[in-house]
Amino acid sequence: KRFLNELTAAEGLERYLGAKFPGAKRFSLEGGDALIPMLKEMVRHAGNSGTREVVLGMAHRGRLNVLINVLGKKPQDLFDEFAGKHKEHLGTGDVKYHMGFSSDIETEGGLVHLALAFNPSHLEIVSPVVMGSVRARLDRLDEPSSNKVLPITIHGDAALTGQGVVQ
Fold it and tell me: Closest Cα to residue 152, out of 119, 129, 123, 130?
């Protein structure tokens, strides 16, 4: 039942964004909706296994859905971004589907901090960014072989290093 609710939330967000902002780029997760319950289950399992931080890296496809349905960003904040109501303290010059975000999620095993890395325009670069962030977090913990920080990188059908010209 939980997975069905999570899938329904993912689909509902995509339908709402498509209807409310029909001309806006949103890089929908449609067809890949199972990503939401999968990520949520990974976070739950990680939290129950002693992980305290999860660092996510992904391209723009489905990113807005992950922000809302996994990281818990307030939907109204996203809708305000679509409507052009930017918060001044966040800076300017980047698009909503490149922005990073972090939050704390309660699991049965305790609190887990989630961090979604900012998305570089060169999509293949997000993996080393995530790995560097995870390494820095582990160094800060002084437990280099620890399971306390989990990296998750999600690759869609876009650029891979060494792939050459893709058309």
Answer: 130
Q: What is the CATH number of the domain that holds 83?
A: 3.40.50.970
Q: Is residue 165 part of a domain?
A: no
Q: Domain of residue 149: give its range.
A: 2-154
Q: In the sheet where 110-116 sits, what is the strand order?
A: 101-107, 110-116, 53-58, 149-154
What's the pLDDT tens digit per position in 154-163?
876 655 555 5
Tokens of 44: 């739950």
Which pair of structure tokens corresponds to residue 65?
């859905």
**Residues 72/78, Cβ–Cβ less than 8 Å:** no
Quote the tokens at residue 100.
């990073």
Quote the radius of gyration of the chain (alpha carbons, Å).
16
Q: Is the pTM of this model over 0.85?
A: no
Between CA 53 and CA 8 the distance in angstroms is: 26
